[in-house]
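for the writeup, i need someone to sanity check this before i put it in the appendix. the sequnce is what the collaborator sent (i think, or maybe the updated version? ugh). structure was predicted straight from it, no edits. if anything looks off just tell me and ill rerun, i have time this weekend
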Amino acid sequence: MTGIEHLQQTFAALRERQEKALVTYVTAGDPDLTTTARLMQTMAQSGADIIELGVPFSDPSADGPVIQRASTRALANGTGLAEILHLVSAARPGLSTPVVLMSYYNPVLQYGLTRFCQEAAAAGVAGVIIPDLPVEEAGALLAAAIPRGIAVIPLVAPTSTTQRLAKIVAVAQGFIYCVTVTGITGTSQSVTEEIAGLSRQLRELTELPLVAGFGIATPDQAARVAQYTDGVVVGSALVRLVEQQGENSLQAVDQLTRELKNVLVGKNW
């Protein structure tokens, strides 16, 4: 099964169960790769439907201070793409949850697009999210990823025009990542006002699942946003627990993941 098929299968199962997807984010290598592997297993067992693994980068322009600090710590540990792909490959046999990588474009470009997609597919990576790669510049990555079954998952923003949304969704696979706010990750804003309008626009353009992220930290926020989408991404709230408790953060991550997933099931969506 390819990564794209793995994501399709996951969303189909969620629809059948009338659940919304919980995508949990953690920065790879923070505080170390051994703990990251344990966090991935914990999140999967606690209800995460997709795990988003952040590739640390020195200039994470879409991320707020919590994930910026996590990237700095992971880079100081020497965490790079090769180590992260090895981590996913090693975790894959005991992990049925799809794993997607969130990376800025420079690390992937420097690694080599073909090499990256070959090794990511071999490792069991389902998809890649690259927030600083505009659709106009994505052709080379798409050409390397699609034949290997790697989903290139685009971000769309409340400020995107309808014409631009159509252009973006035309090349999307896996799901559409909807940015809920006009800002960076981890910011505290009203996350429902803009996502309602954005999801209405997107539903007219694509049948791909819509997953919303940025600014979602609590079960209450997750439940409110999930009214308009097929799932939510929670990142900074989990990364903050790792920042505060390091290798001892498993229990706290487990608890928050369970609380988030509990509000995404059992409702008449």
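The first strand starts at residue 21 and ends at 27. The chain has one domain: 3-263.
thx in advance!!
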